[in-house]
Amino acid sequence: MSDGRNQKPPEEDFAAMLAESERAQGRGARGPRFTVGDRVKGKVVSIGQEVTILELAGGGEGTLDTLELQDGKGQLTVTTGATVEARVVRLGDRPGFVYLARGAGGGAESRDLAAAAQSGVPVEGVVTAVNKGGVEVDLKGVRAFCPISQLELRQVADASVYVGQRLTFRITRYEEDRRGPNVVLSRRALLEEENQVRAAETRGKLSVGAVLSGVVVAIKDFGAFVDVGGIEGLLPASEIGFQRGARPSDFLTVGQPVTVQVLKIEKRDDPRRPEQVSFSLKALERDPWLDATERLPAGTIVRGTVTRVEPFGAFVEVAPGVEGLLHISEMTSGNRQLRHAREAVKPGESIEVAVLAIDSEKRRISLGLAAREAGVDVEGRAAASRASGGGQGLGTLGDLLKGKLPSR
């Protein structure tokens, strides 16, 4: 049994074996051609502490980590002269010399992936799991990783929805080691390229006033982002509809198809996004004000909802997207004086009001509280309001109806 005093360092051991193998093959001999991913067989020429040298069938030689020839207890599973199957993970500096590994993967799949990484050809894979920072993808038996930032054009909130889906990726990094291929993917790169092609077509139709079909891709408090064919634009909350104070999420969902009109186009210095576009949904709808003025002439009593309260009065929605002002002076009766409209009504409250006056030019509707006493002449009340200036500074309800109520 050796005491280890005559053992050479691993570097010298490897160098000696390599030199011996070179002499056996002949210096400068031109070996066979190999490709990364090739599955090869070779005879074990020598086994070192760190590296084992194989004489490959058909010519050539390769090195394999000795660790891959050991079992769980560190015992060698082969001896010199045994035949070992492995795969090419890296080409050497001279013809016919390669680095080998026995880890999972390889073969035709590794060759295909290595070629795809070099050429940029897209590959298909199935998302199998979510881990820290991204998702795992199965590429025909080869495990790959896609960072979460490379899954979509926009930030992904929940990557678990992709598990089980078959998607197309581009390989952004491909490396081989003794454990197998190390593959990093990007789906975003492909999506960006597709968008560039679509955007070039869309720009031919992009102009202020143009009506385009699109899809909602994101929703924020201030509005929604709509993709109209490779070009994203902002649909401001104020342009979603005529309703005041409505939240975009109340009307839109991600993935919803919409038809929008281009409101504004601003040039930018960013070559990837050379324009900033604003859209409108509201511009394509019929103005509810026009319908309201036809259906709610002065003198009409209607039930509405208080949308907001100010010191001078309350705004009441009398039709979808149409508000009128109930002035604080219209909320008082008798000698009671209000300091703020909230002392009489609150937002969300449903109340019955009478249309006193409509100013079509200024798009204003003046309201009064609907009369609760029998015999009140609403038409006369509206006429008095119009004659006095449309509902502001008109005095109390009692004052304005003074001449309309029967004397007692």
Q: How is this structure best described in words?
A:
With 408 residues, this protein is of the alpha+beta class. It folds into four domains: 10-101, OB fold (Dihydrolipoamide Acetyltransferase, E2P), CATH 2.40.50.140; 119-190, OB fold (Dihydrolipoamide Acetyltransferase, E2P); 203-284, Beta Barrel (OB fold (Dihydrolipoamide Acetyltransferase, E2P)), CATH 2.40.50.140; 288-400, OB fold (Dihydrolipoamide Acetyltransferase, E2P) (Beta Barrel), CATH 2.40.50.140. Helices cover 16% and strands 37% of the residues. It has a five-stranded mixed β-barrel. A five-stranded mixed barrel has the order 6-7-8-10-9. A five-stranded mixed beta barrel has the order 11-12-13-15-14. A hairpin with a 2-residue loop joins strand 7 (134-139) and strand 8 (142-147). The radius of gyration is 39 Å and the shape is elongated.
